[in-house]
């Protein structure tokens, strides 16, 4: 199993979610995060005084999936979150030892 | 005889001006950081409490009692609001048929108590205005003591100079020197309120010193919508301030209402245009600040200029104040929320421009300024009144602030300033940022019986 972590622009969330639903992905975790990559922060001005906001608001979408589905999920997120402009985000994949469903105690793929 | 319409209007105006102080609290509160918003609100709110009591004990009589010499201070005949009965004498000239009507009510039009309450609200908001200059760093009780001393030695005397007219409270009463000897015009408080508070803000910002991290690290406004909400409340209340200052439901009140509206509108445009040129964006905070700058500037002039004059005053005020707020960076004083840039500069603009835009076509008790065939004389009087109030307020405020600071009562510790003055001074926080309701506010903060049997909280323990 793999954990797929995607940092995306907040407004793309609906598209990302529906793309993953169509693939049969049954759950995900979404959190609001801040950071920067190539796209830097921005400057705000209050009564003439400039304040630099260094971190950009993004969403982190996390999905755990079977190895066989990884490529499809990656394609789906990449397509849905793509605008072609700087700041579209990153996706990375990490191996997952196991998954447990708390309610039933099921392990591995059965718990997804 | 008592005029029901005038009485109703002045009572309502008093209530409108009362609303300005909480409005100001939100105007200022939105501009500070989330960790000090409650302290900012409290610095304003406490003025209602302190000045409300002092006004009754000795404030009103120091401002409007019979002059004790030189037009400098009222005597103590009305201490404790005793001997206050019957109606405001008003001006005999009001009984003439000059058109449009003169500035003041006819004889015996208002109960004296209505006037006492109307003027109280001015005495409350003036020290509250100063608080913006020392946001985030003043001990609450030190500030409260400052308010009490400041209104006593600065505001009450200055209100006497500017607002107390001869023969106004009673037929033989003698008033203050600016109103009666110098005869500078100040319709609703450009000198007594705004220049006064602005000069005091400058002095206090210098005495208390900069906040840690100023100018770069003192954070951006935490709630700009609060600022606009506060501005709206101020604008609404300002109709009581300006139109109410005609002390009658008459032509002049309607003129002052009109001037208040159009000057504010023009000032918003003036501020935003200059901001667009300087910064490249029209900001919400700029629109709110421009509105207040316009309201400040039209205050002394509201009953003495035409609507076109009011637009000119508003435009000048908006454009000048947006430039003036940069002064603190050049001279290095942390006037946190621009009391100097908006109230001192705005007050000066309005007070001086009466010398240009004043016209007797609006008010027979006014004067013609330079643009209406008058000479330089009135401009000189306006400048002298402004300078007198500015100098008096700056020097006295500096001394009061310095003494309280030396006694250790004014500036919070650097640690409390950084961790947040709300928690340090008030044991409260404005917002619960924990979505799950955790952190502060869990069971150990419920009121409990302490060992001595009194109700206390375990906040101190929870911090340990």
From TrEMBL, chain A:
Biological-process GO terms, alphabetical: regulation of nitrogen utilization
Entry annotated with the keyword Transcription: yes
Modified residues (O-UMP-tyrosine): 51
GO molecular function: ATP binding; enzyme regulator activity
InterPro entries (alphabetical): N-reg_PII (IPR002187), N-reg_PII-like_a/b (IPR011322), N-reg_PII/ATP_PRibTrfase_C (IPR015867), N-reg_PII_CS (IPR017918), N-reg_PII_urydylation_site (IPR002332)
GO (cellular component) term, any one: cytosol
A Pfam entry, by short name: P-II
Record keywords: Nucleotide-binding, Phosphoprotein, Transcription, Transcription regulation
Subunit and interaction comment: Homotrimer.
Family, similarity comment: Belongs to the P(II) protein family.
Protein name: Nitrogen regulatory protein P-II
Lineage per the UniProt record: Bacteria, Bacillati, Actinomycetota, Actinomycetes, Pseudonocardiales
